[in-house]
Every structure is written in C-alpha cells, then in structure tokens.
Design a protein that fits this description.
Blueprint lengths: L2 E7 L3 H12 L6 E8 L2 E8 L2 H7 L8 E7 L14 E3 L2 E9 L2 H10 L9 H12 L4 H11 L2 E9 L6 E6 L4 E5 L2 E5 L11 E4 L5 E5 L2 E5 L5 E2 L4 E2 L15 H7 L1 H9 L3 E3 L10 E3 L16 E6 L1 H18 L3 E5 H4 L10 E7 L5 H12 L3 E6 L5 H5 L2 E4 L12 H20 L5 H22 L2 H8 L7 E6 L2 H17 L2 E6 L16 E6 L5 H13 L3 E7 L11 E5 L7 H19 L18
Parallel strand pairs: 18-19, 18-20, 20-21, 21-22, 23-24, 23-25, 25-26, 26-27
Antiparallel strand pairs: 1-4, 1-10, 2-3, 2-4, 5-6, 6-7, 7-8, 8-12, 9-10, 9-11, 11-15, 12-13, 13-14, 16-17
The protein binds 5-amino-5-deoxy-1-O-phosphono-D-mannitol.
C-alpha cells in the first residue's frame, strides 16, 4: 500500500524518484507526487493517476539533489491532487505509507493551536504534528511524534532548515535503504534500490535514519548508533523488468519453472549410494535452520494468511492432514487476529506471505507468538517483517513479483507446503524414506509439466475469447481441485472484473445451482482420480442447466466429449501434483481474459500489491 522513496546525493533526485516510483507503482497507483529541494526551497509536484502522468508534469530541466516521492493507494480521502503526497506544513514536508488511526483526535488537538489541514488525509495530520513539535531538533520532534501517533507508518521527512537531509522512521510499514558513492536512497521495497546496489538494510522499527549525501546514520530512540544487518539480493535489475513480455503477469507466469527450481533444488539432499539412505533424494531444511523437532509434539497446526497466500494454505491443509495426520485449520489472517484462537506451545502457526509485510498476517503472527505458539513463516521477501518476527522461516525463491496478481509466488508457496509435508511426514515416521524420496521426485517433475502446460498458451487464449463477455462465472472442483478453485476465482476476479465464485462441486445443488442458466461459464477442475466420477456428475448437473463448461483435467481422464465445451489437458502426474499445472492454466485463463478485455492486467483497479494496512 503506497510506495515511498527518498534520495539525497550526487544524482538528479527528480530522476531517481520518478524512476523509483515507476518501480514501486505496483504498491498503489491512485496518484503520485514528489518534493524536491531546488535553490534552497522545497518544490512539490503532484498528479492524480499513474506515475507516467506525474512524469509528464515534471519539467525536463527539473534538477535537484535531494527529494522524496510517493505513489498512493488511497485510504483516507478520495483520489485528488490535494490528497496526494507529499504533504507539507510549516517547515515539514513528508511522505507516508500506512494509516494513522488516531488522526481525527490529533487533528482536533492541533486545531486548538491554529493548525488546520487542507487535505482529507491522515498523513497531513502527521505533518502538522511534526511541525508543532519541531524546534530545530529533528530527533526530538520525531520521537515525540511517535508517542502521539497510533497505527502503522513509514515516513520520509524533510525539514526546511536542514537542506539535503532526509529523516526516516517506521512502525509496521516497510523501509529498506542503501548508501553508495552516488548517495543515500530509501524505499518501501528493494526493487527501487536495485539499480544502485544489491546490498541493503531494513530500517528497524522505532529507529531513525538520518540520510545525507555521504552516509545513512541509524540511531535508536536513546540516540545510540545502530548498524543494521546488510543483506544482499541475488537477483538483478532485469528480474524486476518485463523483459519483452507485454505484462509483468505474463512474464511471471512463464517464470514459474525457474522459480520452482530455485525454491526446490537447494532443499534436496541426495544421499550417497552405500549410505543408510543410499540414493534417496530427501528434502532437508538444515540450511533454513528449521529443526526436525519443530513438528515434534505438535498437536495442531494453524495456517493463516491473506488472499492467494491463504489459498496456498488451503492446499497445505489437505496435504498435512493426509500425510502428517495432524489436525489443520486455515484461517484468514484478518479474522484470526480478532478472534480468540486456541494457542499453546504445541500449536504450530504457519503464516504465508509473498511480501512478508501484509499487515493482517503480521498481526496474526504476533498474536500467535504472544500466546506461546511455535511459528513458521513461508515468505518470499528476504528480511521482511514476517520473516524477521517468525521463529523459523522457509523462504520461497520466486524472485520479485511485480504484477498485483500473484502467480509464481503462489506455486512457490505450494512447493514449500509440499516439501514441509514430505519432510515432516518422514521425520514423524508417517512415510518411509523411500516414499519421501519418491514424493520429491514427483515434485521435481512438476517443473517439466509446467513447461509443457505453458506451451498450450495459444489454446488457452483461444478459449479465453469465450469468457470475455461473461458477467458471472463458477469454478468447481473437489479435494485439491476445490482448494485450487479459490485461487482460480480470485485471479479471474481481480484482473478481469468478472464476478466469479469458487465452489465445492458437490455443494452446488445446495443453493448455487439456481444461478446456472443458459451459457453461464463453469470452469470444472477434474484432476483428482478418487473423486473424478463425483466431479463429473456435478459437471453433468450444470451442463443439464445449460452451462458453458471448460474442463481442466489430466490427459488420460476419460470424459464424455459432450460433457464440456472445451477440455484442457494437463500432463499426467501423481494426483497430488496436479494443482501446479492446473494453477498455471487458470492463471493463463485469467490473464488472457483480462488482456482481451483491454484491462490493466498488472495494476487492476482499487488494488495494490502489498497490503500493509488492515
Ligand atoms: O504479500 P502477501 O502474500 O501477504 O499478500 C497477500 C494477498 O494480498 C495477495 O496474495 C493477494 O491476494 C494477491 N494479489 C492475489 O493475486
């Protein structure tokens, strides 16, 4: 939610900010703005809409060595220029990512001192507050402001009488920074730093970063200098570019074989012939520092996450219950955090998050820890808040995911659940080493299966033409296919704006069947042999009511040709691996349908990639 960037140094800050904002735009794209120091004065340029509109408004000869920039996902106040960041009051100019929950009360207090905002935003109140507290000591003003502010924030702040200096502070919302010979740069996400350095650090919460041309000094609230751990990304700038694809989503769909390879391969240990486990390939998490004891005496597992990450958890639940024979529940993080979940030291709470910054998932994790549960997170972004706050982290190595619709992160999360299920089923004696190794071979075979599925893209695109005019659509399936219907449905909804529902195939006749009329599209997932005949009976039911049926099934499945209008085959694998290939088909259907509808595939309306507000 919102992308922020600050730069002070030896480059033209306007260029650095505009470039960075276009890389951060996936975090919000309602409006954008920059504030740059020019001839000793702060000049602000804002525009409603995308960063390209802002870019067009910035004069070509606009140069500056220090500035801050923001791309907004509106929360408080409509999408207007006046509500766009940066906000300025008195000597203070700032940008903000997060929500100031008590802004109303603060505004009332500040009004008593004659300070009134011009926008409807919570952020502007923070500018008023800081200005009221600032008497020349930025540290004192920021610390005192933090005592008054409730909610989540990442701020970059410029004070008029401290030219070329940017102060930054955060609570909840992410901020990463780097310093090079070219200057100091801070942003919401590493993607905006990559062109300057692969090394970065995460600004710790409640620490103040003072950025000058020549250094970034981080201090805690007692004034002690702190040296945060320097981290390095393994990918380069091309990983965050489209590389010839029309959209990031298309590129990321096609990156899935590589993302899976990177996630699975480092976890496989092939045991030498002649040893006790001779020739077997077993998942091993020693390098992840996840001990085998983690699942020992675990009586219950709770998986909690949001959106697509939660859907990966739905798949994890089925696998864990099948293989580990432990009870598993899957909770939406925004619900879990406000209920009174039963948690103790024998409960394992698994949080899942691509960004590692989703506010509700982070809060769910904190709740689990406060109540003594063991915690493991499956996270894509290294050093993110969820990763740092979990007892154990399993990193997916999907690389940067820029499109709002999650694709490669999802299949990488699935692979994490599969490997965790296999390893701990083996450790707990539920499966033999040989069975575990066979499962791992099966998981590896998912990669060529996806490569094959990707070759069917033209066929999938042709089928998508039939969905372009749809207003409502149903996904149905049973077992693992049912878990996947949820992911198929969210993908379609978020980028095509077609209403869809995910339904357990056997549940339709309990109400929903009344919505099926002539031509209603139904995407039936039928990849699970043990329930195939049942699923096909349900397909017959919708067919009998005139549904337009697209069936995603395995190559060898015997299905009456009249049962569906289109059949899409995925390669034959053990049933438990079918969701990977089927997921890619559903991603391609959503992608092509949205693209044919002429929509902004990568940045769908009202959404943002990283949801750092609750
Ligand atoms: O970064 P996270 O995985 O925690 O994000 C969770 C959801 O916001 C995210 O998966 C969202 O549902 C996707 N845009 C769906 O494609």
């Amino acid at each position: 939610m919102c992308g922020i960037i600050g730069f002070t140094g030896y480059l033209n800050s306007a260029e650095v900010l505009l470039q960075g904002l276009s890389e951060l735009e996936y975090r919000g794209y309602d409006s954008a703005g920059i504030a740059c120091l020019r001839d000793g004065k702060v000049e602000i340029i804002k525009e409603v809409g995308k960063v390209s509109s802002l870019h067009a408004k910035v004069p070509a000869d606009f140069t500056s060595s220090c500035g801050i920039g923001h791309t907004r996902w509106a929360t408080h106040g409509g999408v207007t220029e006046v509500n766009a960041h940066p906000h300025r009051y008195g000597k203070v100019t700032l940008i903000h990512n997060g929500i100031i929950e008590n802004y109303h009360e603060l505004a009332e207090e500040l009004a008593k001192g004659g300070r009134f905002p011009v926008s409807e935003t919570d952020t502007e109140i923070a500018a008023l507050l800081l200005d009221s507290l600032y008497t020349g000591d930025a540290y004192a003003a920021i610390k005192e402001a933090c005592n008054h502010l409730e909610g989540a924030y990442g701020f970059c702040i410029m004070f008029d009488d401290q030219p070329e200096v940017i102060y930054c502070i955060r609570k909840g919302s992410p901020l990463v920074a780097t310093h090079t010979d070219e200057g100091s740069v801070i942003a919401s996400d590493m993607v905006a730093l990559l062109r300057y350095s692969k090394d970065y650090f995460v600004l710790p919460e409640f620490h103040i970063a003072k950025m000058t041309k020549d250094a970034i000094i981080v201090t805690d609230f007692e004034g002690n200098i702190v040296n945060p751990e320097i981290m390095t990304v393994t990918w380069d700038t091309t990983a965050a570019q489209k590389n010839g694809y029309k959209h990031f989503m298309a590129k990321e769909i096609h990156e899935q074989p590589e993302a899976l390879r990177r996630t699975i391969m480092p976890r496989i240990v092939k045991h030498a012939e002649g040893s006790e486990l001779g020739g077997l390939s077993l998942p091993d998490f020693t390098a992840d520092n996840i001990p085998d004891s983690l699942f020992k005496d675990v009586s219950r597992i709770i998986i909690t996450a949001c959106g697509t990450a939660m859907h990966a958890g739905m798949m994890g639940k089925i696998l864990f219950e099948r293989l580990l024979r432990k009870p598993v529940t899957v909770d939406i993080a925004s619900e879990f955090r406000y209920e009174d979940p039963i948690l103790d030291e024998n409960t394992l709470v698994i949080t899942v998050s691509q960004s590692g910054e989703t506010a509700d998932t982070l809060a769910a994790l904190r709740l689990a820890r406060e109540n003594g549960a063991r915690t493991l997170s499956i996270v894509n972004v290294k050093g993110s808040s969820i990763a740092r706050e979990s007892d154990y982290v399993f990193y997916t190595h999907a690389g940067p995911e820029i499109a709002v619709a999650s694709t490669k992160a999802y299949t990488a999360q699935l692979s994490a659940f599969y490997m965790i299920a296999f390893r701990f089923a083996y450790v707990l004696g539920k499966i033999t080493a040989k069975e575990c190794s066979d499962y791992m071979e099966g998981l590896l075979d998912v990669i060529p299966s996806i490569e094959e599925v990707l070759k069917q893209e033209d066929d999938v695109e042709a089928i998508s033409h039939h969905l372009v005019k749809a207003e409502n659509l149903f996904f149905i399936g049973r077992s693992l296919d049912y878990a996947l219907t949820w992911e198929g449905s969210i993908k379609l909804k978020e980028i095509t704006y077609i209403h869809s529902e995910a339904y357990a195939a056997g549940e339709l006749k309990h109400g929903t069947l009344s919505l099926i009329t002539d031509g209603t599209p139904v995407i039936a997932l039928a990849t699970q042999s043990h329930v195939l005949s049942k699923t096909l009976s349900n397909v017959k039911e919708v067919r009998a009511r005139g549904a337009f049926v697209i069936c995603v099934t395995t190559k060898d499945a015997v299905i009456e040709p009249t049962l569906c209008d289109f059949r899409i085959d995925i390669p034959r694998t053990d049933d438990i691996f079918a969701p990977f290939s089927a997921a890619v088909i559903l991603q391609m259907i959503a992608y092509h349908t949205a693209s044919l509808r002429g929509l902004d595939v990568d940045q769908p309306r009202n959404l943002a990639k990283s949801v750092t507000v609750e």
